[in-house]
């Protein structure tokens, strides 16, 4: 039954059925994908619809409206956010040719906010909070018994825009957000950075060609290139008691093919709770510093982007990278002390 075709309305109705049955979003997505095939419904998408159901909105149809249907807009916005956790409301608005305020309102109604430049649910569910506490306790206890941070390789991606205008965010009142906006209809040029690093520095990175996105096949090819880079730059890791791989829950990372590839490489994937940029060194450390470095930059080409990134990585010494990784136990401890809630400060 893996090749069955399911309409959007049917998928939403199935999710509503499992919501009524008392299942959580992750369980519902797993069941749907086991019947209709992998990636029929992502966990993020299921969680979005479960939040709608909890708010009392059980409408699963795309009602005809003037212009783009609201549900269609929401679906497309959420699809972009799922594929690019760092997407700005401005870039989403330009891509979909809708008002930036519309994007902001949809994300706000869906319960999303930005933490460390990453879209996450504004209010974590009880299960999310318990998962964060449980995983942090597990990692903290393991690291005390068998320190593994110096065996950890961190994987992540971030879109790099050619134009990096420094924007100032401020609230004028409860409903209006003031932000500098680019010319309407202008689609920002950007390229995807894929980077792998550890406590000693950058191991490998790739800046994809303009217009190319990451998929499972490409990611598995990148893992082979990463293996070669580790052998050259970190031979001690190859001969150690095993590489611990840190990655988040974006689709190319969690596909069955990717998981199988990581098993073939013999790399252990460390536990990481979803919606937790405050526990991801790339988000709370590397990418924040990178954004400050590139702030105000106007780059004419992909090559210019790559040159600036090369300079950024080279200008950071071992102390910088080590600080970002070795901060993790403190982050885990704080999450436990704050009952799973997001951290408002780093370190």
Report a brief summary of the structure.
The protein is an alpha/beta fold and 347 residues long.
Mean pLDDT: 82
Question: And the CATH topology of the largest domain?
Answer: Nucleotidyltransferase, domain 5
What is the number of beta strands? 9
Radius of gyration: 21 Å
Quaternary arrangement of the chains shown?
single chain
Morphology: globular
Give the count of structural domains: 2
CATH superfamily of the largest domain: Ribonuclease H-like superfamily/Ribonuclease H
Percent range for β-strand residues? 5-15%
SSE string, helices as H and strands as E: HHHHHHEEHEEEEEHHEHHEHHHH
Characterization of this structure:
50% of the residues lie in helices and 12% in strands. With 347 residues, the chain is of the alpha/beta class. The chain folds into 2 domains: 8-121, no CATH class; 126-337, 2-Layer Sandwich (Nucleotidyltransferase, domain 5). Strand 4 (170-171) and strand 5 form a beta hairpin. It is globular and about 55 Å long.
What key attributes describe this structure?
two-stranded antiparallel ribbon, 15 helices, alpha/beta, five-stranded mixed beta sheet, 2 domains, Nucleotidyltransferase, domain 5, 347 residues
């Amino acid at each position: 039954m893996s090749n069955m075709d399911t309409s959007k309305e049917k998928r939403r109705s199935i999710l509503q059925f499992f919501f009524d049955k008392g299942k959580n979003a992750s369980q519902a997505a797993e069941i749907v994908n086991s019947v209709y095939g992998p990636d029929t419904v992502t966990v993020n998408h299921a969680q979005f619809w479960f939040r709608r159901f909890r708010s009392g909105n059980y409408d699963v149809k795309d009602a005809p409206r003037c212009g783009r249907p609201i549900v269609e807009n929401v679906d497309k916005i959420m699809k972009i956010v799922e594929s690019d956790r760092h997407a700005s409301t401005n870039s989403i608005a330009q891509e979909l040719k809708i008002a930036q305020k519309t994007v902001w309102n949809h994300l706000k109604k869906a319960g999303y906010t930005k933490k460390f430049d990453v879209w996450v649910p504004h209010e974590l569910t009880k299960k999310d909070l318990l998962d964060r506490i449980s995983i942090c306790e597990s990692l903290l206890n393991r690291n005390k018994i068998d320190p593994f941070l110096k065996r950890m390789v961190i994987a992540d991606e971030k879109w790099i825009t050619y134009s990096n205008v420094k924007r100032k965010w401020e609230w004028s009142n409860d409903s209006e957000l003031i932000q500098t906006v680019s010319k309407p209809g202008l689609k920002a040029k950007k390229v995807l950075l894929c980077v792998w690093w550890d406590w000693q520095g950058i191991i490998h990175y790739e800046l994809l060609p303009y217009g190319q996105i990451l998929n499972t096949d490409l990611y598995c090819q990148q893992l082979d290139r990463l293996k070669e880079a580790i052998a050259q730059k970190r031979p001690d890791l190859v001969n150690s008691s095993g590489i611990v791989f840190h990655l988040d829950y974006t689709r190319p990372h969690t596909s069955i093919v990717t998981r199988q590839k990581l098993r073939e490489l013999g790399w252990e994937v460390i536990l990481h709770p979803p919606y937790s940029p405050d526990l991801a060194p790339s988000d709370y450390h590397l990418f924040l510093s990178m954004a400050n470095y590139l702030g105000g930059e106007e780059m004419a080409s992909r090559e210019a982007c790559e040159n600036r990134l090369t300079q950024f990585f080279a200008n950071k010494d071992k102390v910088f990278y080590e600080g970002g990784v070795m901060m993790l136990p403190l982050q885990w401890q704080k999450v436990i002390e704050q009952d799973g809630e997001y951290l408002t400060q780093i370190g």
